[in-house]
Design brief:
By secondary structure, the protein is an alpha+beta fold. It contains 21 helices and 13 strands.
């Protein structure tokens, strides 16, 4: 049973920022630490800092001869069954690492030629150069290290969707200041006496980390082929066309795969590793489909458009409208808008905002407003008004009151319809003219049009249309 079904959310995967896991089993997805390095949002950067800090701490302890301390830190890592990600032979019951496995891992690290040559530079190098470390273990290590961030994220998502929680012992979180594991209690969703940690869907992959065999096949073997060609070795054959050829299968026969071989070649020729990692990171800038719901975005978009038409205006339908808008924004703007938080307190609790998003900066428009002098938007403020009348100055002023220099000055004022849209644009233009930021008015027509574009596969048209509204608001300020 899906998490959304268990808690009655009535939402598809496409409407959720997190992975809609199976609460009764694991699903074959992994948290990928490389995903943190290709994104610039605060959550990803902070996760990457945690991963790098733990990695550096372990290596520094080993290099300093503090093997027992390193083993103890590694032994604290359990197989994280609470995310329900990965594939475990024992179902979702975590096997854990334990002191015995930690010692084996420490020995493997110390024996690795990459450790001797200093070829280690990040956590994914464990998978590339250390025996018995694969993508599943990289994902487990990463999950444990960023547990504190996952706890905070889960709490915010439960609050957004009204999921009940209980105070539980949530495990150990990595303390970047003390370089140790601290016990943590938190209010989290519970299923069958076990708590659940939710994971943002943008950071999961079918495989995690970097595949050493790919590095061997795509990097090392190609490098060795070129070496044979350059040296005109005995492996070089002359084709009928006169072209020189070295067959990869013969190179592999002479240099069979091993992590030590990969480590030696890349240590002596670092450009091989650099080029491979750059290529892998470029491949991870696109989020893969994670469920059948994502594959059927046409049906999801059409369903949401129908629900929007059926949602009554006024106070009675306000909650349903607010909940629906969260799902629609996820469908039309992911992965530009991520980590939605509901009615988050700002300015020490003196003000609240309907929904606060992080700017994922995936499209050109959202990248533009991140650095635009009018808004500098690292966060996106959203106000939802299920009014029967046109929004007026108080509604515009309300969202402007949320802006600040740290989070940015860009917001979406979302409402049902209006008799004079041009007047609302004028009011938003006044905000720009006064130097207070940018508010873009979004009505049902925009949402229906955007959902239709998603249904037709024209995702780029959504951000282009939003850019058009942004420009209209700014143009109003110039008149």
């Amino acid at each position: 049973m899906k998490f959304s079904e268990f808690f009655g959310l009535n939402k598809s995967q496409s409407e959720l920022d997190f992975v809609d896991i199976d609460v009764e089993d694991d699903i074959p997805l992994y948290i990928d630490p490389v995903a943190f390095t290709v994104r610039e949002d605060d959550w990803s950067v902070e996760c990457n800092d945690l991963v790098n800090d733990f990695f550096d701490t372990i290596l520094n302890r080993i290099r300093g001869g503090e093997n027992a301390v390193a083993e103890s830190l590694m032994a604290g890592l359990a197989e994280p069954s609470e995310t329900h990600l990965g594939v475990s032979e024992a179902g979702v019951k975590g096997r854990g690492i334990g002191i015995g496995q930690a010692r084996q891992l420490m020995r493997a690290i110390r024996r690795s030629s990459a450790f001797e040559t200093g070829n280690f530079s990040e956590l994914v190098d464990f998978e590339l150069f250390v025996d018995n470390i694969g993508p599943d273990k990289i994902s487990d290590l990463t999950t444990n290290i960023i547990r504190g961030k996952l706890i905070d994220y889960t709490i915010s998502q439960c609050r957004l969707h009204g999921v009940p929680t209980k105070n539980v012992a949530a495990g150990y979180v990595w303390n970047i200041n003390s370089k140790r594991w601290d016990g943590k209690y938190a209010n989290l969703p519970v299923v069958d006496d076990g708590f659940v940690l939710l994971v943002p869907k943008h950071c999961v992959r079918r495989t995690a980390g970097m595949d050493c065999k790919k590095l061997y096949n795509q990097g090392v073997v190609n490098f060795l082929v070129q070496q044979h060609l350059d040296k005109s070795s005995s492996l070089v054959e002359i084709l009928k066309s006169g072209k020189k050829k070295v067959y990869k299968n013969k190179v592999k026969a002479e240099n069979p795969f091993s992590k030590d071989l990969v480590s030696t070649i890349t240590s002596n020729n670092p450009e091989v590793l650099v080029q491979f990692k750059e290529k892998q990171r470029l491949m991870r800038t696109r989020v893969p489909d994670i469920s059948e719901d994502d594959l059927n975005r046409k049906a999801v978009a059409e369903l949401l458009s129908d629900r929007l038409k059926e949602t009554p205006l006024g106070h009675a339908g306000a909650s349903d409208y607010h909940n629906l808008v969260v799902g629609i924004l996820e469908v039309i703007f992911f992965p530009d808008l991520v980590y939605p938080e509901k009615e988050r307190e700002i300015n020490d609790g003196r003000k609240r905002v309907d929904i606060l998003y992080t700017n994922g900066m995936d499209s050109s428009f959202f990248s533009m407003i991140m650095s635009h002098n009018l808004c500098n938007a690292s966060k996106i403020f959203v106000e939802c008004k299920n009014y029967t009348k046109d929004p007026s100055n108080p509604e515009v002023d309300q969202i402007v009151g949320r802006f600040d220099l740290n989070r940015g000055r860009f917001g979406l004022l979302i409402f049902r319809s209006c008799e004079d849209y041009d007047l609302i644009l004028d009011r938003c233009g006044d905000v720009v003219r006064q130097g207070n930021g940018v508010v873009v008015p979004i009505d049902d027509n925009f949402l229906h049009e955007s959902l239709a574009n998603i249904s037709s596969g024209f995702h780029g048209k959504v951000s282009s249309r939003l850019r058009g509204l942004f420009d209209r608001v700014v143009d109003k300020a110039m008149k």
